[in-house]
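Dear all,

This email documents one entry for the complex benchmark we are building for the journal club exercise. For each entry we list the sequence lines for every component of the assembly. Then comes the predicted three-dimensional structure of the complex as a token string, followed by one or two observations. Please use this as the template for your own entries, and keep the labels exactly as they appear.
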Amino acid sequence: MGKVLMKGNEAIGEAAIRAGCLNYFAYPITPQSEVAEYLARRMPEVGGVFLQGESEVAVSYMIFGAAACGERIFTTSSSPGISLMSEGISYISGAQCPAVFVNIMRGGPGLGGILPSQADYLQSTKGGGHGDYKLLVMAPASVQEAVEMVMRAFPLAEKYRNPVMILGDGLIGQMMEPVEFPDHLKVEPSNKNEWATNGMDTRKSKTRNLVKTMYLNPEELNAHNLKLKAKYEQMAREEILYENYNLDGKYKVLIVSYGTMSRVCRTAIDNLKANGLEVGMVRPQHVFPFPHQAINQAASKKSCQAVLSVEMCMGQMVEDVERSVLGKRPVHWYGKCGGEVPTPEEVMEEVERLLS
Amino acid sequence: MDERPVEINLSGIVIIVGNYGSGKTEVSINLAVHRKRHGIDVRIADLDLVNPYFRTREAKDSLSKLGIDVVLPPQEYLQADLPILSPLVAGMIRRPSELTLLDVGGNDVGATVLATLEDVFQDKSVTMLQIVNPLRPFTDTVEGCLRIRGEIEKAAKLAVNGIIGNANLIDETSPDDISSGYEFVQTLSGESGLPLEFITVPRELLSAIDLNRFECPVLPIDRQLVPPWQKAKEFG
């Protein structure tokens, strides 16, 4: 199959189908609604199910139910909707069920606006719901990368028996780019018979599987949390993913940026290079686990005078960047949060201001 | 002698419809500029009530500079995803300029707005053109295009009168995509009985393509709806 021109939201829907996910429960919200629109049409064609819940809270528990049965399942929403789903996400994490959530972020807080934003970074990487849980969080910068991440998200969710979040901003959902789809995945969750409530007859077993989040015995709950913690530590060892840009030369400033914001930064870096100023960038592709070490290393380069976290929000990832740099270089933040995406010129000005 | 009808000769009320992402807005903007440069008075209305980003309103300033009148929803609702139809639209249809272009939202859902203007369209001659990009999902077959045409006509309570071929992969469009896209819309034109009004070609590809092989006019596209890390092209 050759390339097709797709809107990010449509491509995310198609990628899920090709990842073998035939269950999609969702509730529409701008700027993500095209996923639901696309799959309302496509799911029946491939023998799948699209079910619109009565609210995002309901959807999150419908996902829990399907995931507990060992079904490959996903949903998509945008910021306020993800807030509503956060309770369910906490339960799904606690119950160790695999599921994929896509957040096409819009500006907040509250209803905010419908334009692109990255203001849910802390929500996705540090919690959102209650309890000690973590999500594996992927942050695509192009429609093609969104497709690849969605297709990888399902096997990873199953590997860790944990929800995976795809954190895209409104532009990822709304922009159109040529995409090429990898072959269909043919991965069955290999261990689901060990834990899923998929029926004793189905798995030809005489033992009952129980999916639960309640552990009234404090020792049991502590042991359960230690088990979860071990999974997050394994993620931190095995799932770090980032891309370096222009790190070979003697860059004076290191930018850290993710998602479509990083593409604005790329243009800024290219323009600055043409003006004789070298700037490098580390782009986290997974924002949890975060590439602390790679950023620390890049910031440690002799020529590097400062680190700049560029985000479409009021400075959230900058906290992780500070934890990476560990005081070796001054860390700054630049960004906007209202739906306006900083322009390459604005990023260039900020870099020049830092050095002046 | 070149017998190809090189020039697009559209005037009156022209409505651009098509499936989501078929290129209605990009083509409407470029068509507006193209006709304006041929000395025709052009007004363009953004009737996209379903799409939250990348709408005609993004190009308002560059169009206004060229003397093209852009009719938009009231300023305070410009960034809302609310179905707001400016009362100015009915007025511009009642008193059309030499070319009145209506850029409508995607699919039948986007075209529903036209049915609300039914009374205003009465006794007016209207050309409704369906844009087709065969490199998009759902319009990669003739059946798919005809299905969308039917859905749009039903929702709009108006008939499609012609086709615009807009085969493209944005920045990655190749001369081959243009050729196969042209053949596709030729077939569609044959099977639907609808004339092929024109096809589009990104301006940067014009020199790589033998335009004489096309039996329809060609609209060069200077891309305006770009992501924030790119610059809109200057109108050629």
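Observations: The mean pLDDT of chain B is 90. The two ends of chain B are 26 Å apart (CA to CA).
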